[in-house]
């Protein structure tokens, strides 16, 4: 399990008992808790210091999406943690995990900090090391940060995967799939970024 000592974790939650449970769970793992914040305004005070975040979608009738946008622009991992079924997540934020409040703190931890391959050694069926599907949310975020446009960023991910298939024989030995695809994406964005915007 990942060591959270010193990590600044923003908790945005308007139910104080739930906020307290999350804060205790993650502070016991060494995280420094920012908040818990019960409003968008309170959460805004902590977004620049946050290194990860848990976001309740509905804060007394207001949506947390402005906070998610700020975190996304900084490349900070976050998860939505909601008790509501009927709130639509904006398309550009759907790469993030969206958990029900009944999921519990451990599920939030696993969504926020997916286990690395080395941590999965005791699992009988480990995830394949080159599982591109599990990297898609990260690729979408990277593309969104590069281009700043939802539709163009999705096209960039598609072009990246197409280019990666063509270039698979030129991949450096020992390079992780994630690093390799990010390199391919930067090259595709440099070469074709402007065309993808239209």
UniProtKB/TrEMBL annotation:
It holds the Pfam family PhyR_sigma2. Transmembrane segments: none annotated. Residues 135-183 form the PhyR sigma2 domain. The lineage of its organism: Bacteria, Pseudomonadati, Pseudomonadota, Alphaproteobacteria, Hyphomicrobiales. This is PhyR sigma2 domain-containing protein.
